[in-house]
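User: For my dataset I need records formatted as: sequence, then structure tokens, nothing else. Please produce one.
Assistant:
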Amino acid sequence: MHVRHWLSSVLVVLLATTGCSQDSVIKDPSTPEAPGELIASDLQRTANPGATDEELRSVAAGNTDFGAAMYRELIRTEENLFFSPLSITQGFSMVYVGARGNTEAQMQQALRFSLPQERLHPAMNALDLALHGHAESAPEGQGDPPELRIVNATWGQKGYTFESAFLDVLGLQYGAGMHAVDFASDPNGVREQINAWVAGQTNDRIQDLLPEGSVKGDSRLVLTNALYFKGAWTESFEPGLTRTEPFSLLEGGTQQVQMMHRSGSVPHMRGDGFDAVALNYVGKAFRMLVIVPDSGRFKEVEARLSAEFLDGIRPALVNQHIDLGMPKFQTETDFSLADPLQTLGMVDAFSTSADFSGITQQERLMLTSAWHKAFVAVDEKGTEAAAATGAVAGPVSIPPSLTVDRPFLFLIEDVETKTVLFLGRILKP
């Protein structure tokens, strides 16, 4: 079994309670009833969005800082955490297309968007294209490259009038047509349809993302983003070396975990109160960056998390021969994004003050819920070719060791663009 990471998120936009009733929705009698109908722009997704390198760096750094801010909002309990800043950023950037006035300004601040709308969406497209390109770039003979799937889809009320400029941006920059559905007559059926799409895009790792009651008869629009990643280590851990060892818990005491081991050259740095190692996936375009705070300093190091903090780690990583111990772990988290996003300043979007007039002029819309669910599993194995490339000569002397036997932070990133796909912490493997 390869090392696997799966993630999906979804956003739900419903009609606001501003005096417009469900009966006021204009139904177009000419709208076909056939399943699979699309409400879409005539524009096809552009493969040359024209974003500059500086704009790519801007959206990548903004995504990291948003992830760090969201991370701090989510760590309310002493539990593991795993989520995708990129999935949330991508999903909400589609909502942002239609935001206007104070709603737009609040979303820009909360989501850490530093570019104006006309440049943000081409940059998001360029970043997505770059990430997919990197996933396919493993040199021949090194094994199968990582599998990366980032897909967007939207679901709109059948017969509803959506702004053509909104549909144009979705089609041109996000490759997202809109599935025409009838929330009014069968909200639960639509919910099940969307959940099935999410499950299919994530190899069935994300099930039942939208809970019962989240889609209602007055829903008008649902925007979804699914992100799936599967990668094999360039140098696998030897299954025969995995053994039961103690893992120190944050609140004191220990628990027994399955500790994997491997010896070889890894990028490593020693920082102020922590160690960091980078574990490459086949092709070395993507890697897991593991940050292991010293005993008693987890909260202190965790509080430093930001784009600037990571930028201080990356250039300081130096290849070093290390005996590395890493626990096998698996965790799944799901949560509503409504409260943390409002805490970050995105207030109007979830209220009757919301201005999404760039989506439709037919009714006043507001966000009523936003859900995120993520799953990750990490084990020893990679591909056979990856294991072969791990045959690296080591020094005769006994190498230094690093055993991740205490709570740690980790992220999965694209090396070239510094885009953080996933971010999390493990307190109890």
